[in-house]
Design brief:
The protein is of the alpha+beta class. The protein has 13 helices and 42 strands.
Length: about 700
């Protein structure tokens, strides 16, 4: 048996974007993998036959083939950066000629017939992203120069900008950045294309459905009606305080080219999906409230009447936060996935009776695809110890178990030993009285740790903050990689985590350093009392909100030998003005220009002189959600105060470390840091501080 290493993790196929053919016979999906030089991830298209489980790879080469969408007569439309009319290369073709042919950088629409080679459909200078298709009608998004309604004008604008050599971006309002890119000079528009009217050469000028704006459709989701006659899109509107709300609009195609507002108000709609008859849309509705988290609910929209109903699905006493809902084929049932007590099952909501049924029990589900006969659901399913695979479940059952249709990750895990995962429940006190806090303890493989052998403990804090550790596969922060180093890894869901009810979330809202901190320490206390944990050798680590929490922990206690803080919030007042979403953040922490009370109460930077614990600070330069300035300020303070510290900077990464070789370095640096400070003996004594 071998151990689960970072290289094992990076070698696993990554399944995503599952889609069912109109006849229900096949499923198409994307599989990500490292390229031949192991410098980046690329993706291929696969299909699986529902009746037999026969799995077939559809595309080859080190291109990015994504977003498979079924059209008419078995055609599969997809997006790719492969060169024009470049046939799929044979597996293993790594010749210099083959590598040279991958010079295309923009994503374009391609069509793959049931028998034949991919044919390029679009030749747009701005590229294409986020494709939807029904029959021979396509809807897609692309970033374009405003006031340039043709491809000829688009190219002219881009050429003029390059000729001027001017890289400046000017803004008259915020926000100016989003995650890892700047807004402008191009903006995101939605397009419509009827392929039946195309000649053999493709198209240069699809119809632009959206007005000239800056942020209305930036990163917003949309869906195409089954008859191809309408697009339902989420349209963002910036309010007076520069906070956005997203409402649903209907964008007519063909003769009906009108734009109609389907919803109004200050709240947010996301991930709309049409019913099969095209008369209704289901979406996630999130309340934008001042001083509260707000709930995520189901919205059912009548497209013709432009009315909508909001429903709060509850199951077993837990207010569920639905994700990516979809209608059954008969339109009566809405299926969705939601966190519930450390699992992410599929639920069924009866749109007539409003009854909620849990369809599956264990594991995490996504990419739900109802079968035409209503009897089955296809989805991607994973657990703590198994990466996502395509499965089928009984759509009419309760707590149904999945049946796997694919086994693409099995070969990479043959002979690999994983430790088992134990579920814990610990009582914690604080606002709202005593709460039972769920956590997971990931044990090392038995080959390197006997069941009762005392091993170092590493407390991991999840990001979000609206999220949770759960029984599904974790790509970015995989606990098995660290358990294989001989650590017991503790994954805690403190108050503010999803899946335990609205009150559980609200008790941590705008109180990050209170109830969430107390919950984390209560669970750590309970773990350290176990005979299989060496309470004298503990560490903590986290990213984003988790990074904030370990920074706060560093100011409150000396119990941990070392800390790893990734993409972490440090100086909350300064963070407000540099993050890409400062105005949105005010819903929780308030307006810092008029009231700094919450910022001052929970900002770790004010308590920096209390830190003695060695800290590894990690950040990506292209992270605009938690800007790298937060890492700079923290590391500078630690160095000036003589706290043992190290700064790991990734100039080419964003909020996450995504490139394979960077990920290997990220893991190795953390391994080295833990090995250094969790060695036997009093590691803090060497720092000169007590």
């Amino acid at each position: 048996m071998s151990l689960f290493t970072p290289d094992t993790l990076l070698s696993l196929p990554r399944l995503s974007d599952l889609r069912l053919s109109p006849d229900g016979a096949t499923l198409a999906f994307v599989v990500g993998r490292r390229d031949a030089e192991q410098r980046k991830y690329v993706s291929d298209l696969y299909e699986v036959v529902v009746a037999t489980g026969e799995t077939r790879r559809l595309t080859f080469g080190d291109d990015n083939d994504v977003a498979p969408r079924f059209g008419s007569h078995g055609t599969l439309y997809f997006l790719s950066n492969r060169p024009d009319n470049n046939p799929p290369r044979k597996q293993g073709d790594s010749s210099s000629k083959a590598k040279a042919e991958t010079s295309e950088t923009t994503m374009q629409v391609f069509a793959l017939p049931p028998r034949g080679e991919p044919r390029r459909i679009t030749r747009l200078s701005h590229g294409v992203e986020t494709l939807e298709a029904h029959g021979d009608v396509l809807a897609f998004a692309g970033y374009v120069h405003p006031q340039a309604p043709s491809e000829e004008l688009q190219r002219a604008k881009e050429d003029a900008r390059k000729e001027a050599g001017d890289s400046a971006l000017a803004y008259d309002e915020i926000p100016i950045r989003f995650w890892d890119r700047f807004h402008g000079p191009r903006v995101r528009h939605l397009f419509h294309l009827e392929l039946g009217r195309l000649g053999a050469g493709g198209v240069d000028d699809p119809r632009d459905l959206t007005p000239n704006g800056r942020l209305e459709y930036d990163e917003q989701t949309f869906d195409l009606a089954p008859d191809g006659g309408m697009v339902i899109a989420c349209e963002a509107v910036l309010g007076a305080e520069h906070r956005s709300q997203e409402n649903l609009v209907a964008l007519g195609l063909g003769k009906d080219a009108a734009r109609r507002e389907l919803t109004h108000g200050l709240h947010t709609f996301a991930t709309p999906r049409f019913s099969d008859d095209g008369q209704r849309v289901v979406a996630v509705f999130h309340e934008n409230l001042e001083g509260q988290t707000g709930r995520s609910l189901l919205a059912i929209v009548d497209v013709r009447a432009a009315t909508h109903d909001i429903h709060a699905p509850i199951h077993d006493g837990i207010e569920l936060w639905p994700t990516s809902p979809c209608f059954s084929r008969d339109g009566r049932t809405i299926f969705f996935a939601a966190d519930q007590r450390g699992e992410t099952p599929i639920f069924a909501f009866d749109s007539t009776t409003r009854a909620v049924r849990r369809v599956t029990a264990h594991g995490g589900y996504s990419d739900l695809c109802p079968s035409p006969d209503g009897r089955h659901l296809y989805a991607l399913h994973s657990t703590f110890d198994r990466p996502p695979e395509v499965v089928v479940v009984d759509a009419l059952g309760t707590d149904s178990a999945p049946t796997r249709l694919t086994q693409l990750t099995d070969s990479a895990l043959v002979g690999v030993e994983l430790g088992h995962v134990e579920t814990l429940s610990t009582e914690s006190a604080g606002k709202g009285g005593g709460r039972m806090v769920q956590s997971f303890l990931v044990h090392p493989p038995v080959s390197i740790a006997k069941p009762d052998e005392a091993k170092p403990l590493v407390l991991w804090v999840h990001g979000g903050p609206l999220g949770a550790w759960g029984n599904h596969w974790h790509w970015r922060w995989n606990p098995h990689v660290f358990a294989a180093r001989g650590h017991r890894v503790l994954l805690v869901n403190p108050r503010i985590s999803t899946g335990y009810g609205q009150a559980f979330i609200e008790e941590g809202f705008a109180r990050w350093g209170a109830e969430p901190f107390h919950d984390l320490m209560a669970v750590t206390d309970a773990a350290c009392a176990r005979p299989d944990v060496d309470a004298t050798r503990t560490a903590t680590m986290g990213g984003s909100f988790g990074g904030y929490m370990v920074n706060w922990i560093a100011t409150q206690t000396r119990r941990f030998r070392c800390i790893v803080t990734h993409a972490s919030l440090w100086n909350l007042p300064a963070f407000h003005g540099t993050t890409d979403a400062g105005a949105e953040w005010e819903r929780e922490f308030g307006n810092p220009f008029t009231d700094t009370k919450i910022y001052d109460a929970w900002s770790p930077h004010r308590l920096v002189t209390k830190i003695v614990t060695p800290m590894l600070v990690v950040h990506g330069e292209k992270d605009y959600r938690v800007p790298v300035s937060e890492g700079y300020m923290l590391f500078t303070a630690l160095q000036r105060l003589g706290v043992p510290s190290r700064f790991l900077d990734f100039p080419d990464e964003n909020h996450w470390i995504l490139k394979p070789r960077n990920s290997l370095r990220w893991h190795q640096e953390i391994f080295d840091w833990l090995d250094k400070w969790l060695a036997r003996g009093d590691s803090l004594s060497s720092s000169g501080r007590s």
